[in-house]
């Protein structure tokens, strides 16, 4: 097994505090230069795992047939053992079932459904930005960033208005990254509530189908069979898991990066750079999901290292998104960057199913800022999220002044 080369400090990549207490971009730069693929030694808490840091290796491994997602696609889950949703939830299902399941979910996202959801995202974001301009100091995370993604997913799934408060409450309890001292049992209970809620809703929509995503999923077949209510429920939940926190942290990171790079904010406001191009740079810069995890189904070689069947392999997309071999001056926030083929939505067969919505949410935010805001100022230190997976902040005190 290979150790990181001399010069690369061994950081515990399973420990959430690592990502708050260290300059991780400096760490990844050294890793890419000295030991782009290395074996992360086991600790007294966790088994060892492979670390892959270069863009080209990550991209090629995301297509590799010897790598499986079925035991989980995030480090914490694969370190604990198996993902209980493996083989049922699209993100943690392997071929041959993955493709038809993914196609089914994709087919439910019709242009009509997505068009209506995006229209609501724009309206809601415009209203939120108009409201916060009136305030003195406010927390962008709670007042704006937190208000959009869950409501968007509820719109996408046509969740009845009366049920939304419960779903939002359970989801907050289920999120571990918000509290350093979160209660594991409370979180587990909340996740069960969400799955049970979706099972009931799926059963109702099966009985009285409507013109919505859950009804489409409930009526369709994969390999000649309908999805069970449990399968429907975990796949509905997967939209929350995939789309809530990632969208939230990217919005917070967008505002922080614009405040810290006033020349880029000016260029955006002046129309010297398109909102579409800015969205891609925000996604690269924020790298909301820092890694993707896989498990080897067979032995294979990567960059001269022998990976054995059963080994855990972690692909650090946050490092790939800052790989100097692909991105010129990667630690410069450059809204006009082109090309900008980042890995923030993954790559290959599991490429994000919500990429269109994730981009639309950021587009709505940047467009609303350009239309309504003149000056943005930070009013205190942003509070970082403690996580080995999610990159970003949970609080960002700011002041916005109208144009
Ligand atoms: C997959 C990131 C928004 C639903 C993924 C993957 C990444 C990602 C990296 C690949 C996972 C893997 O390869 O194991 C993001 C980011 C977002 C975002 C950064 C926002 C900025 C959304 C939204 C939704 C969503 C809004 C739902 C409406 C999904 C689903 C998958 C997925 C269902 C699994 C696809 C598959 O396995 O075939 N996302 N996502 N995501 N995402 Fe997103």
From TrEMBL:
Q: The organism sits in which domain of life? A: Bacteria
Key word Cell division present: no
The protein's matches in CDD domains, at most eight in alphabetical order, are given as: CYP142-like
Q: Which SUPFAM superfamilies match?
A: Cytochrome P450
**Coiled coil: which residue ranges?**
none
Keywords from the UniProt entry = Heme, Iron, Metal-binding, Monooxygenase, Oxidoreductase
Q: Which family does it belong to?
A: Belongs to the cytochrome P450 family.
> Which PANTHER family did the record assign?
BIOTIN BIOSYNTHESIS CYTOCHROME P450 (PTHR46696:SF4), P450, PUTATIVE (EUROFUNG)-RELATED (PTHR46696)
Name the chain's protein.
Cytochrome P450
| Species per Swiss-Prot/TrEMBL record | Actinokineospora xionganensis
Q: What is the lineage of its organism?
A: Bacteria, Bacillati, Actinomycetota, Actinomycetes, Pseudonocardiales
